[in-house]
Structures are given as C-alpha cells and as structure tokens.
C-alpha cells in the first residue's frame, strides 16, 4: 500500500507541466511544509503594480526577506462617467496594488496612512498565518506608518483588505487587493497576466446619477448595491482601456472579489477557461465556463486565444453586468480563424452603451447641466452615446427599425404627430397597435425607467433632432414630470 503510494507520487513529479500536478494526486503539505528556512541574500523590495498589471515572477529559488511599502490614500475618483466617489485605497487604486512574493519569503510590511486621510486603517492579508492576518499589528492613524512581518507559509492567491471598524464600510469604499504567494517552483510561463477584481458599491444616488455620490450605509446593510464593478469604475476595462492580447497567446487572469457582500459568478463571454485554480488554491479544474468567486476570495484562470475579437468579462448574475456595471473587455487582435468560429464580432447586444469607447459626452452634459449651461448640442451628443446599446439593439443604430418587429425612429410620422410621445414612451413603454410610416406594429416596448431623468432628456432630445425628425427639446425637469404621470398606452411591468 505504502509502496504504491510512493510510486504514484514519483510518477506525478515527472509530469512535464511546470505546475505542481501533485494537485491531482497528493498534497503540498500546507503550512507544515511551507517554511523553507531563513531568508537568504540581500533584502528584496517588492515590485507593486496598479491594476490591471501584475508584477513579474519573483524568479527566486530561495526564500528572501521582501520589503513591501504600501500607502493608504483616500481620494475622489470617477466611479462612472460624470459620477465621483470618495474611495479609500491601498496604493491609490481600486483594487489596491498587486503584491507578488514566493512561498517561504519573510514579508516585512510597511503600511503608511497618508497625512490627509480622515480615517485610521489597517490591513488583513488572507495569506498571513497569525491572528487577524496582520490587522491588529497594522492599525495606522493618519500620518503614521506601522510595520509588521510574516512568513508566507502557504502558496496561493489571496485577498487583502482593510479590517478597521466599520469593516464593511472600509471594504465597500475599495480597500482590498490581491497578494500572490508563488509556489517554490513558480508558475508556468504565459504570454499575458492581468489583475481584475470585482467589488460592489453603494451610493445614495441611483446608478449613473451624476455628481459626487456619498456612501449609502443602509443599502450596504441590505446588500443592494448601486454598482457592481471590475477594477473600481464603470469603464475601467472597456473601450481604449480594454485588456489587450493577441490570437495565439495564453492569458492568465488573477481575479479577486473584494465584496463586501456579493459572490461573483465570473464568466468570460466567448471563452472557456482551460484551467481554473478555483478559490486561488493549488488544484485546478479544466474546461470551465463560469467559476464562483466568494467575497474575500480569488481564483486564477488560464485560456488560449484562438479567435480575434472582444471577450466580455462579466458577473453572470447578469443584471449586474448590464445594469450595475460588472462588465470588462479583453480584446484579442489577430487573423480570423473561420474554421473555429465563422460568426461576427460581439455587438451592441452584449456591450450595451459600453460599445462606445467612452461616455464622455454624457459626463460633459452632466457637468454643464449642474452649472445651468447645458446646450441642446450637448444633450444631443450625450443622447447619441446613450442611444447606442440602450435603444439601438431594437431600433437599430441609425433608428431605421426592423420591419414588422421594431418600428423606425428615423423620420417617424408617429413621432412627428406628437413629439412629446418620445420621453413618455421611454419612461412608460408602449403596448398595443401602432402605425408608423404606413406599417403596422402591435408589440410591446418595455419601460426604460431605470434611466435617470437626465438620460431620458438627452436620449429624447437626440431622437427628436436626428434622422429627419421634427426637432425639439426635452429637459430633465420634463422627464421628472413625465415619470410621475401614467399614460394609458403604458406597457406592462408597471
Ligand atoms: Cu480602512
């Protein structure tokens, strides 16, 4: 029996994969075997990176003393176009700086809380063996530095986060990140590595309501987020900030979930994970579609790119992707491969208004609206960006409609007969028989009441001033009034 086991182990070690394939048939020995002796050589300063970048492999063959310097910075940053939020950060970004060490390293951690911080902070690293994961030793008042050290006994991908009371609030404000503890032999070589972290955010205003948005404690307690985001902002990884890659390359994602509340059903539309190191541990599963990442957990996944195009990273709890922001893009460049996939590039259906490189005109319109200097031109420009995805999936990009199914908005005699209908239909939907440009439609447009008053005003103004429609101007106040009214043609769902 013992001999068989030994044979088995021996066979495993000879497998060509550089990962510890022990994963499938034996174990690593955990923390009991994690101490690889005292640090050797000169001290090493850890390379920290901002998301979505990942530090290079440590490349070391022996344990070292690794110095980590991490700054806590409280700062206002955009959470969506035209929406700002006061984030509390590790290293000035959400998620915080990526830390990469090797199993057996002694990590000397310096946590500095900037002098202009309003709050004390600390850090709990899930890769630490010891009560509190460093939290008690790292409690740091504004303008102070604290220092503690730990030996990284277990290899794996670990979340770190602030654990200062109220803990949920510190985490909800963006205080989390990832630390990778490489196994002694390192990880296999891949062409690209990226760092992505999901988090849920709670604001007083609605999704995309413009201006500065304060934290909403009640919504956080109810676990009802306004935003669910990758890397701390809507659009952090879309448009010109999409993750670049090339066909033929192997990509490894380090994906964490800071929470504070939601678990993530992490999925990449159009890809299959060749391998997933589920829960950030040592074993991998193969050929996985969606992997569950708990709050305060992480996973590594690898896939090879065979077909060019946009791959959409989502939380497959899908309203979060399309209505709360949990959407990122990995863009693979390279030659088509029609034998593997003959279809077209992912379209507005999947990207929504994120099919646009940015929603800058929307932010500009909001800024002008708040100073009372909003022009019709600005409303039209903002409305055009919002129309893409929101309306264009049905009414088509140029408002031409789809015969027999979706009526045209371009040169619509139905709109011309009563332009006031446009904001009404956006907010309340439309059901029943209508005749547009001589063609009959008898269908159901769902209300788009999730849009803010600004958004409704801008989209309506854009539609009225485009494609030969009669022109006109819908204000945010008009939209607010229409929202309260209930026309008889309203669609169900009210
Ligand atoms: Cu904190």
TrEMBL record:
- Signal peptide boundaries: none
Class of enzymatic activity (EC top level):
oxidoreductase
Keywords in alphabetical order:
Copper, Heme, Iron, Metal-binding, Oxidoreductase, Repeat
For molecular function, the Gene Ontology terms on record are: nitrite reductase (NO-forming) activity
Looking at the keywords, is Lipid biosynthesis present?
no
What remark does the entry make about the cofactor?
A: Binds 1 Cu(+) ion.
Question: Could you tell me the superkingdom of the organism this chain comes from?
Answer: Bacteria
Q: Which family does it belong to?
A: Belongs to the multicopper oxidase family.
Self-association or partners: how does it assemble?
Homotrimer.
Q: What is this protein called?
A: Copper-containing nitrite reductase
From which source organism is this entry? Lysobacter stagni
């Amino acid at each position: 029996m013992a001999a068989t086991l030994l044979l088995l182990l021996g066979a495993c070690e000879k497998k060509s994969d550089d990962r510890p394939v022990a994963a499938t048939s034996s174990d690593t020995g955990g923390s009991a075997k994690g101490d690889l002796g005292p640090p050797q050589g000169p001290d090493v300063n850890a390379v920290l990176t901002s998301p979505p970048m990942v530090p290079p492999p440590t490349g070391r063959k022996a344990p070292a003393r690794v110095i980590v310097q991490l700054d806590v910075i409280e700062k206002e940053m955009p959470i969506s176009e035209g929406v700002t939020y006061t984030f509390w950060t590790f290293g000035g970004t959400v998620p915080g700086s990526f830390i990469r060490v090797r199993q057996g390293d002694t990590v000397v951690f310096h946590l500095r809380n900037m002098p202009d911080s309003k709050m004390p902070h600390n850090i709990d690293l899930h890769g630490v063996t010891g009560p509190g994961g460093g939290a008690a030793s790292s409690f740091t008042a504004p303008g102070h530095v604290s220092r503690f050290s730990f030996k990284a006994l277990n290899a794996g991908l670990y979340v770190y986060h602030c654990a200062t009371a109220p803990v949920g609030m510190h985490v909800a404000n963006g205080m989390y990140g990832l630390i990778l503890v490489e196994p002694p032999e390192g990880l296999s070589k891949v062409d690209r590595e990226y760092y992505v972290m999901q988090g849920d955010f709670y604001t007083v205003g609605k999704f995309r309501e413009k201006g500065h948005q304060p934290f909403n404690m009640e919504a956080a307690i109810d676990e009802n987020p306004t935003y669910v985001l990758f890397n701390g902002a809507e659009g952090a990884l879309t448009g010109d900030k999409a993750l670049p890659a090339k066909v033929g390359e192997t990509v490894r994602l380090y994906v964490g979930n800071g929470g504070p509340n939601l678990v993530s059903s992490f999925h990449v539309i159009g890809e299959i994970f060749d391998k997933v190191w589920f829960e950030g541990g040592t074993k991998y599963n193969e050929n996985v579609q969606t992997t569950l990442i708990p709050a305060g957990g992480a996973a590594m996944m690898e896939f090879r790119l065979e077909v060019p195009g946009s791959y959409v990273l989502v939380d497959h709890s899908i309203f979060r992707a399309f209505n709360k922001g949990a959407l990122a893009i990995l863009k693979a460049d390279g030659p088509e491969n029609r034998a593997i996939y003959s279809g077209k590039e992912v379209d507005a259906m999947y990207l929504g208004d994120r099919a646009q490189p940015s929603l800058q005109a929307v932010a500009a319109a909001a800024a002008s609206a708040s100073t009372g200097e909003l022009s019709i031109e600005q409303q039209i420009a903002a409305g055009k960006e919002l129309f893409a995805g929101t309306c264009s999936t049905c009414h088509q990009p140029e408002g031409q409609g789809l015969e027999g199914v979706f009526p045209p908005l371009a040169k619509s005699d139905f709109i011309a007969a009563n332009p006031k209908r446009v904001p009404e239909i956006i907010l309340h939907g439309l059901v029943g028989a209508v005749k547009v440009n001589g063609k009959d439609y008898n269908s159901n447009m769902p209300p788009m009441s999730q849009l803010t008053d600004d958004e409704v005003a801008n989209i309506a103004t854009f539609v009225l001033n485009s494609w030969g429609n009669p022109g006109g101007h819908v204000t945010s106040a008009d939209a607010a009034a229409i929202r309260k009214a209930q026309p008889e043609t309203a669609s169900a769902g009210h």
